[in-house]
Design a protein that fits this description.
Keywords: Membrane, Transmembrane, Transmembrane helix
Distance between the termini: 25 Å
Radius of gyration: 20 Å
InterPro entries: DUF6427 (IPR045625)
Pfam families: DUF6427
Number of strands: 0
Protein name: Beta-carotene 15,15'-monooxygenase
Helix content: 55-70%
Structural class: mainly alpha
Organism: Daejeonella lutea
Shape: globular
Length: 325
């Protein structure tokens, strides 16, 4: 399977669609009676009045599968366009779909799933600033993207420091570029505040920042037995890290800087869960893009066919098994 996706073959898109559905076999076999999804944060309901439970369960799952499939293709295009793996393949898409199917909450519509579109957009913009002479407009746009993501899912605000980290990694210090980040972020909330003021709902606007004062969450809803599916993921990530370390200083500067950025993106996505008092497992979908790049890097450069094919089969088998049982 991995060998097939190592090549740029249009038929792999069809295989990706099949694998996307295969990795949802468990939830199709044990279909939840009802799924409740908040597409946006409560403070933004006046702006976009989307009702809860607006989709039947089966439709919800199919739409979520379609979105993760589209994201995988976009992600694959970004990784190949900036040559992060050293060659063009469909492995980034394959590993993104795999990482986005690890847990049952990943398989339904969630705010984090929608935010991943913004995260991929940000990733493409990040990778583009290295060769630009002027990036103030790009950083302003990125600040606005983080603000939009915050309206959908508040912990996305943690990506704001990532914008400054990207400037540290890719650019010499320029205070105007740093200021453009916060200006873009404030722009969205300024117009949102005006909208709430016109609707005499300014008290709801103040509630936006309440999660920053919430206590550290301790009620993560996850079955410890289900975390066993992370063992093959952890093994692939470790192998990918050693493979990257072997080639790191032989890589071009842009590639080294890009993987440094992806590392911080993964860490911020991982630790930002504390910004949501009622933590849901789907939050960790934000870690899927950087994790998928490192896993794909291992499979692109791995030499032992029996090992990397077995690793992927164990990963897929574990995902399906823990969904069903």
């Amino acid at each position: 399977m991995i060998k097939q996706f190592r090549s740029i073959n249009p038929v792999n898109i069809l295989f990706l669609a099949v694998i996307t559905l295969l990795l949802r076999a468990g939830i199709f076999m044990h279909l939840p009676e009802q799924v409740s999804v908040d597409f946006i944060e409560p403070f933004a309901r006046l702006l976009v009045p989307i009702p809860e439970n607006s989709l039947p369960t089966l439709t919800n799952i199919y739409v979520a599968a379609f979105l993760i499939f589209v994201q995988a293709l976009l992600f694959n295009w970004i990784v190949n366009s900036y040559n992060l793996l050293g060659k063009s393949t469909y492995l980034p898409a394959l590993l993104y779909i795999s990482a986005g199917s690890l847990f049952t909450p990943f398989l339904i519509l969630s705010p984090a799933l929608f935010c991943n579109f913004l995260l991929l957009w940000m990733l493409e913009r990040f990778l583009s600033i290295y060769k630009r002479d002027e990036v103030r407009s790009v950083m302003y746009d990125l600040g606005m993207i983080v603000a939009l993501g915050t309206l959908i899912y508040f912990p996305f605000i943690a990506m704001l420091p990532l914008l400054w980290i990207s400037l540290i990694i890719f650019r010499p210090f320029n205070w105007r570029e740093w200021l453009a980040v916060i200006t873009g972020f404030i722009t969205i909330f300024f117009f949102l505040g005006v909208f709430y003021y016109w609707n005499d709902s300014l008290d709801q606007f103040y509630r936006i920042w309440l999660p920053l004062t919430s206590k550290f969450p301790t009620n993560l809803r996850i079955n410890f037995y289900d975390t066993l599916v992370l063992l093959p993921v952890a093994a692939i990530l470790v192998l990918g890290f050693f493979q990257l370390q072997k080639n790191f200083f032989r890589s071009v500067v842009h590639l080294r800087k890009s993987f440094q950025l992806l590392f911080f993106m993964f860490i911020i996505g991982l630790v930002s869960f504390y910004l949501k008092e009622d933590l849901r497992l789907y939050h960790f979908l934000l870690c899927a893009p950087p994790a998928a790049v490192l896993m794909a890097y291992y499979f692109v450069h791995a030499g032992k066919v029996w090992l990397y094919e077995s690793m992927f089969l164990v990963l897929v088998g574990g995902i399906v098994y823990f969904q069903i049982f």
